[in-house]
Amino acid sequence: MSQFPVKLASALTGATSSQLRAWREKNILVPEIRAGRPPLYSFRDLVALRTLAHLRARVSSQLITRSFATLDLLHLTDHPAEYKFAVDGGEVFAQLPSGEIVGLAKNPGQLTFVSFEEIAAPYENFKGDEVQSLYQPSKHSRVDLRVLGGWPVVAGTRVPYDVVASLVDFESVTPEEIEDFYPSVSAEAARDMINLERRVEQIKVA
Q: What pLDDT is recorded for position 106?
């Protein structure tokens, strides 16, 4: 099982590090691999985090907190990735694995639930920032649960993005020389992995 640190979890889900911390502290989503320092998230956590970030783009953080508190009161304690959520009239509803719809504040009306495909697709978070597809966080990278447990790799390979980014230092190894080490990784892909790593590292951990 891959273990996703805060910066990478933030980059892949669109949730800010401040949101991740708040959701940990409020027990909305506690990393199932390691809750302590440093926190480590599972791939299932990433799916739930993208769901939460989708919800946060449409309702307040206070409503999300109240809604998840209701889940606990109803003893619905499965991992959040096991539920589908919808927003209707400013309220949050959950669809359980059984298909039952539970209103977390009101009785549900006609609702459209967000599928995993929609959760994984690009979207705008609550700050209006574009969040890349979970499956394709950059042009030449891919995320597949069946490959290294969902850790981002160079598309068409099993080579982790961060391995390429750390290898290419532009002195002893240039992007054009990456094929000497990994024949399936092009110079363009190497540059893309470096840019993805820079994006991850620019995230400030709250």
A: 65
- Is it the case that residue 49 has pLDDT exceeding 70? yes
- Rounded to whole angstroms, how far apart are CA atoms 107 and 96? 15
10 Å CB burial of residue 33 (0-12, 13-18, 19+) is: middle
Compute CA distances 122 → 12, 18, 53, 144, whole Å: 10, 21, 12, 16
134 pLDDT more than 80: yes
- Peptide bond preceding 38: is omega within 30 degrees of 0, i.e. cis? yes
Place of tokens 């597949």: 144
Is residue 39 a contact partner of residue 24, using CB atoms and an 8 Å limit?
yes
Buried b / exposed e along 156-168 (16+ C-beta atoms within 10 A): ebebbbbbbbebb
- Nearest Cα residue to 153 out of 97, 197, 105, 109: 197
Rounded CA separation 168/164 (Å): 6
CA dist., res. 180 & res. 17, Å (int) = 37
> Mean pLDDT across the chain, nearest whole number?
92
This prediction has a pTM of 0.85
For the stretch 105-121, pLDDT in tens is: 765 556 777 778 888 99
CB 138 within 8 A of CB 196: yes
